[in-house]
């Protein structure tokens, strides 16, 4: 008897093959062209239902990896070995067809069942997959017939669970949302500043004193929306927008304002621009709250260490949380200062000590001379926190929602920052630059009564004015004597050079006369 093992979303199914000779037939696929022929060839013998989605994922994963799971081992033992008799007899009498060769070898090794797994049997499994609903519904009640609608529902649930298991996917871990949110937050800040500046410049023609009284851009726009023309300021209630002191100052300034008059049309456009400023500010607050919640879910340890905005900017600059986790602490320290780094390397100057981490509260609370050291320590702890946030999974013992490493690292760095601040204060006091600037350590002096060394003997003897003038005269005389001596020497050298030149000329003239006399004698001899 031949049994076919087939894994489904419902569980493991055993089909009995009615005709063993058709198993090796090249026209096997023709028997699955209709549901009737498929039900005639295969019958559902037994089914092992999965009790939960977790068990279904474990079973499907084990089959794909070629491993024998506990549920499948128990199912094959009960249906093949125990129902048919002893292990040796039943294992030799029946043949089990399996799609995975690795799984076939594992079943043979552990259970001793005769298993076959060949590439020619793919048509059989393809036909079972096409007519699975009909084969499962036509089974006997004892075998466990199944409704096709339940099969579709379970298949959909198992596919989602299996995909999530394979990809290790969690909707809360999507760092793309953080990258887009921090980019939009920066754009909103720029746009809000531009609109607020335009409102102040526009309304400043009508009420210029208001810009000096109200410095907050959002409050400025809300006051314009509530007051309108400055003449209405005295009758408006601004207690919900401004403190009592500012409200009184604003109303007093509105009565003596030097601004020009504007029309109703101008005020309508100013109101619309104020509405834009107010709506953008409200949406920015919502976006910031969303970013904080998302950062707490994606990178809780990094958020606890450096804050939501700095952590989000680090992730955005790296591209993703995983890319940031691959960076060393030295790179995280100067992340965001690449231009300054390359400029320093090009000009051979000192490299920057911090980048985006400069905006962290831990670096900000450090003394000016210790900011570089604090940035290095924050980068080291941030690298550990980022790797824990990026690489920790649900199977780890640590609670992912609790920022344990980040909170502990922040507490240690805060204590270290206080220690550095105290050390800096003590060094300033010792150098006379701190709060007690008058304190200086006294020099050591001997208190014994005895002869001491006269330090005055080391000083040069005092020099009077007359002696000083005499020394200057002597220096001048020496310089004049040197100049005269040098001039005489130059005259002597010139005279000697002149005499040498005259002697050379005399010798040349004498040699010329001798040459002339010899030539005359030669001519006379030749004529004779």
UniProtKB/TrEMBL annotation:
Annotated compartments: Nucleus, Nucleolus
Keyword line: Nucleus, Ribonucleoprotein, Ribosome biogenesis, rRNA processing
Biased amino acid composition, Basic residues: 484-495
Coiled-coil regions listed: none
SMART domains referenced in this protein's UniProt entry, alphabetically: NOSIC (SM00931)
Principal subcellular localisation of the protein: nucleus
Protein name: Nucleolar protein 58
Entry similarity comment: Belongs to the NOP5/NOP56 family.
Residue intervals of the Nop domain: 298-422
Feature: compositional bias, Acidic residues: 466-478
Gene Ontology biological process: rRNA processing
Gene Ontology cellular component annotations, sorted alphabetically: box C/D methylation guide snoRNP complex; small-subunit processome
Function: Required for pre-18S rRNA processing. May bind microtubules.
Name of encoding gene: NOP58
Protein species of origin: Malassezia nana
Stored InterPro entries: Nop56/Nop58, NOP58/56_N, Nop_C, Nop_dom, Nop_dom_sf, NOSIC
UniProt keyword Amino-acid biosynthesis, yes or no: no
Record region (Disordered): 447-528
Keyword rRNA processing in record: yes
């Amino acid at each position: 008897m031949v049994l076919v093992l087939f894994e489904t979303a419902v569980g493991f199914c055993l089909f009995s093959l009615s005709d063993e000779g058709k198993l090796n037939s090249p026209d096997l696929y023709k028997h699955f062209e209709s549901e009737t022929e498929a039900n005639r060839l295969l019958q559902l013998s037994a089914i092992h239902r999965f009790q939960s989605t977790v068990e279904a994922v474990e079973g499907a994963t084990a089959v794909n990896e070629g491993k024998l799971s506990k549920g499948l081992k128990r199912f094959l033992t009960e249906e093949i070995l125990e129902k048919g008799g002893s292990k040796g007899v039943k294992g030799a009498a029946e043949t089990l067809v399996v799609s995975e060769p690795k799984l076939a070898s594992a079943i043979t090794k552990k259970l001793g069942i005769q298993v076959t797994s060949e590439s020619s049997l793919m048509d059989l499994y393809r036909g079972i997959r096409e007519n699975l609903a009909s084969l499962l519904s036509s089974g006997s009640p004892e075998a466990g017939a199944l409704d096709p609608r339940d099969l579709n529902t379970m298949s959909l649930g198992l596919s989602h669970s299996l995909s999530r298991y394979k990809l290790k996917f969690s909707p809360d871990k999507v760092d793309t949302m953080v990258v887009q949110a921090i980019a939009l937050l920066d754009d909103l800040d720029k746009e809000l500043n531009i609109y607020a500046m335009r409102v102040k410049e526009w309304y400043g023609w009508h009420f210029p004193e208001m810009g000096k009284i109200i410095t907050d851009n959002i409050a400025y726009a809300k006051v314009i929306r509530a007051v309108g023309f400055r003449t209405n300021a005295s009758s408006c209630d601004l207690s919900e927008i401004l403190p009592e002191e500012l409200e009184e100052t604003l109303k007093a300034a509105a009565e003596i304002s030097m601004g020009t008059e504007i029309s109703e049309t101008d005020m309508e456009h100013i109101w619309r621009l104020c509405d834009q400023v107010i709506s953008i500010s409200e949406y920015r607050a919502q976006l910031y709250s969303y970013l904080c919640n998302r950062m707490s879910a994606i990178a809780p340890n990094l958020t606890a260490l450096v804050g939501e905005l700095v952590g989000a900017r680090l992730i955005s600059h790296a591209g993703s949380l995983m890319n940031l986790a691959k960076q060393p602490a030295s790179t995280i320290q100067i992340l965001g200062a690449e231009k300054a780094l390359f400029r320093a390397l090009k000009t051979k100057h000192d490299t920057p000590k911090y980048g985006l981490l400069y905006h962290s509260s831990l670096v900000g609370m450090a003394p000016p001379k210790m900011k570089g050291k604090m940035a290095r320590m924050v980068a080291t702890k941030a690298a550990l926190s980022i790797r824990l946030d990026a690489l920790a999974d649900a199977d780890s013992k640590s609670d992912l929602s609790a920022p344990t490493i980040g909170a502990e690292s922040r507490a240690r760095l805060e204590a270290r920052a206080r220690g550095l601040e105290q050390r800096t204060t003590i060094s300033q006091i010792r150098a006379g630059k701190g709060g007690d600037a008058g304190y200086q350590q006294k020099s050591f002096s001997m208190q014994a009564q005895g002869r001491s060394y006269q330090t005055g003997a080391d000083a040069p003897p005092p020099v009077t004015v007359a002696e000083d003038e005499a020394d200057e005269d002597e220096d001048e005389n020496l310089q004049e004597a040197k100049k005269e001596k040098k001039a005489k020497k130059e005259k002597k050298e010139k005279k000697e050079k002149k005499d040498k030149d005259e002697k050379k000329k005399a010798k040349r003239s004498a040699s010329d006369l001798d040459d002339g006399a010899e030539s005359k004698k030669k001519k006379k001899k030749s004529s004779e």
